[in-house]
TrEMBL record:
Keyword Transmembrane applies: yes
Protein name per UniProt: EAL domain-containing protein
Presence of the UniProt keyword Coiled coil in the record: no
EAL domain location: 24-275
Lineage: superkingdom: Bacteria
Keywords: Membrane, Transmembrane, Transmembrane helix
Amino acid sequence: RAKDAGRGVFRTYEPELHVQAEERRVLELALRTAVENGEMHLEYQPVVDAEAGQLRGFEALLRWKSPEFGTIPPSKFIPLAEDARLIAPIGDWVLRTACAEAAKWPSDIRIAVNVSANQLQNPGFLTTIASALSNAGLSPERLELEVTESVFLHEGLGVTRVLDRLLGLGVHLSLDDFGTGYSSLGYLSRTRFSSIKIDRSFIHDAAKGVREAVAIVRAVIALAESLDMATTAEGVETAAEHKMVQEFGCTMAQGYYFGRPMSVTDARALVNRRWKASAAA
Ligand code: C2E
Ligand code: MG
Ligand code: MG
Ligand code: MG
């Protein structure tokens, strides 16, 4: 009987775990060949200056469309790629593709690329950046690398030194999703970030009038200003949110209100029109 009960428990819990592990295994396998099979592409989301709404650059966002599994969101496949040590080769492709595209735009338009902690820990990463830039013929100051606070979780691995060497190449660094991670502010004094990207949860709550969120957004902007860093408001979806961000004195803004992540063709058209949010609104 005890044996039966045991088996019952086994049967109740195991299949679910099994499916999760199986799904991961199968997705990971498909992920291994996704780039070479041409299943990945980039979308580009406009970044504008908060004051005038003028286009300043784009953030490259990775998309995976698997013939077998359909469209899989980055929130699902990026962590998988990180665990499976696939983020370095995939990230290389992202960097090369994004730099090559940006080289076709006017020189005042920047490209921002997301970089995972694992990529920074890869000893070949500096070479990857340098060769992506030189192959594309893109000057370094037009490339911005976005990292999250999580890269500082393992300071022992020399992250600050890697970031310094990246700065030495002339690229910009920005701190992504600010406020959602482990808010030890020490690294802000050790690394010369060009910009702090304030996570969209704060922008959203602050625009709704949530007192704590307002206080945090204001404090982050003041902090950034005193450190000579710009701020980017993420996830601006409405005119009211844009207005708030302007009033607070954010430097840049990004969000569905200004433009969703778009195809490379649409991004080029936008660049050519020298699009302004004010004209679109
Ligand atoms: P992220 O770097 O913070 O990128 C911004 C995310 O917010 C994107 O989600 C974008 O589509 C979404 N977003 C932009 N504006 C709005 C808005 O107004 N409202 C709402 N609700 N969402 C908005 P996406 O494309 O799903 O990417 C999710 C995350 O996946 C990114 O967050 C980034 O951390 C990661 N990721 C994407 N591409 C790459 C990549 O090439 N390499 C690495 N390492 N990570 C990537
Ligand atoms: Mg980002
Ligand atoms: Mg972000
Ligand atoms: Mg975010």
